[in-house]
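Need a sequence for this fold. Nothing fancy.
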């Protein structure tokens, strides 16, 4: 289900970078495998709006275990609108509400008549982050922990510099691209934090050439960032 915008390539990059690594996939209505331990990282990518509702319902019985994993330092990478499932709820344009896991003090407001598309430039510490965003919703609330600091583009919501969510080793971002492929320095930092012993990414030279080209474009004040919504 979590397969939009090329996001599954993030998992393929991690597996390709670490010799002997493999991915285990959990079906929608199955108990999440990481709850039983053994996962170096849990990855969840973008999904449809209907998929969000299905995922929130499927994960609800495991909320306590997932919360323990997050607070206990299990590493998560969550991209696109999947991050909204970890907030309190999603308010929909028809007046309905999707109850979510409530692990972060944020909620989403959705309007499917107004998709926001745009470029993104931000910071992860001293690493510059480039990417794209395409979504019907924005995040609101008082959650302090952000993953990126926005330089250009939209953070959690228009006018907000904080982007994404961060707690212990849980990392979530609206940024697409896919995130790890478009940001090889961030990918290597993640792998270092995991203790993977990786010195070079697959196709790293090509990835760095593309990354540097995007940096030049995104830093250019003449480059437009917003494409509607």
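Here you go.
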């Amino acid at each position: 289900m979590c397969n939009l915008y090329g996001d599954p390539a993030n998992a393929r990059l991690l597996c390709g970078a670490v010799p002997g690594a493999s991915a285990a996939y959990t079906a929608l209505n199955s108990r999440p495998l990481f709850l039983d331990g053994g996962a170096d990282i849990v990855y969840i990518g973008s999904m449809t709006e209907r998929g969000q509702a299905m995922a929130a319902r499927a994960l609800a019985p495991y909320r306590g275990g997932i919360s323990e994993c997050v607070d206990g330092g299990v590493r998560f990478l969550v991209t696109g609108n999947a991050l909204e499932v970890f907030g309190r709820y999603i308010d929909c344009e028809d007046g309905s509400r999707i109850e979510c896991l409530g692990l972060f003090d944020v909620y989403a407001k959705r309007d499917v008549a107004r998709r926001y598309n745009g470029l993104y430039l931000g910071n992860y510490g001293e690493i510059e982050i480039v990417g794209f965003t395409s979504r019907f919703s924005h995040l609101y609330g008082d959650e302090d922990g952000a993953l990126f600091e926005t330089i250009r583009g939209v953070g959690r919501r228009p006018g907000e510099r904080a982007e994404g969510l961060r707690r212990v080793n849980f990392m979530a971002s609206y940024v697409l691209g896919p995130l790890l492929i478009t940001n090889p320095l961030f990918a290597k930092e993640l792998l270092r934090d995991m203790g993977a012993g990786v010195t070079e990414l697959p196709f790293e030279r090509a990835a760095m050439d593309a990354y540097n080209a995007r940096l030049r474009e995104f830093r250019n004040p003449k480059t437009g960032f917003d494409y509607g919504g």
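For context: The longest strand covers residues 116-124.
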